[in-house]
Design goal:
By secondary structure, the chain is an alpha/beta fold. The chain is built from nine helices and six strands. The chain has a single domain (11-206), classed as Glycogen Phosphorylase B (Rossmann fold, 3-Layer(aba) Sandwich). It has a six-stranded parallel beta sheet, with helices on both faces. Helix 1 (19-28) crosses helix 4, helix 2 crosses helix 7 (161-172) and helix 5 packs across helix 8 (175-189). GO terms for molecular function: glycosyltransferase activity.
């Protein structure tokens, strides 16, 4: 018998953030245009090349749009730098590296859309953090991610660049849909509570150990 107990959401990401904090982060990283956000380490399964290709397609119609990637060091991956150049987006992809938790929380809130096309995940915490911040999510339809996002984000086939592009486009073109999805995601994130998960683990131990 298998019992599935989900990760909790760090309550820090659910807290209210004042405008000054958002403004400071936007100014520090020159975030003066609408942007898509991806939070990741730089590994092949994170599917960044397809994300870059998708962003290259979107830039044809959204000239004021940026892509912000927070996480690992891009400079150690020449294939990704080459992809940026090939798609003509090297000046519109901001690579921020790893950020302090406070800045990351602000970044989630500043983003127009959070995009997470990973090929597989054990837990999928970045989409959960984005949802906690009220940011609409486009994510992969595989592994653990659908269990986290549910119907509170747009799930796509991460191997299809066109599917990633169209999901993002549907949110860019409909602010009401975008806002509604962000609000639903925030409610969903509150269901992932570490206290509940801990109590469930304790209950299972009791069930197993009771003669």
């Amino acid at each position: 018998k298998i019992e599935v107990i989900p990760h909790g959401c760090d309550p820090y990401f659910l807290e209210t953030v004042d405008d000054r904090e958002l403004s400071n982060v936007a100014k520090k990283y020159s975030l003066d245009r609408p942007f898509l956000l991806n939070v990741t380490n730089i590994k092949p399964h994170k599917n960044l090349k397809r994300l870059l290709e998708s962003f290259g397609q979107l830039r044809r119609d959204y000239d004021d749009l940026d892509l912000v990637i927070a996480g690992g060091d891009f400079s150690q991956h020449p294939e990704l730098l080459a992809a940026c150049k090939s798609y003509g987006i090297e000046k519109r992809v901001k690579r921020l590296g790893f950020l302090p938790k406070k800045e990351l929380r602000a970044l989630y809130r500043l983003a127009r859309i959070f995009v997470f096309p990973s090929l597989y995940e054990g837990a999928g915490l970045p989409p959960l953090e984005a949802m906690a911040c009220g940011t609409p999510v486009v994510a992969s339809d595989n592994s653990a991610i659908p269990e986290i996002v549910g119907r509170n984000g747009l799930l796509v086939n991460p191997y299809r660049v066109d599917a990633i592009t169209e999901a993002i486009r549907s949110l860019l073109e409909n602010s009401s849909f975008r806002d509604a999805l962000g609000a639903q995601g925030k409610i969903r994130a509150q269901e992932f509570d570490w206290d509940k998960s801990a109590r469930r683990v304790l209950d299972i131990y009791r069930e197993v150990l009771t003669p």
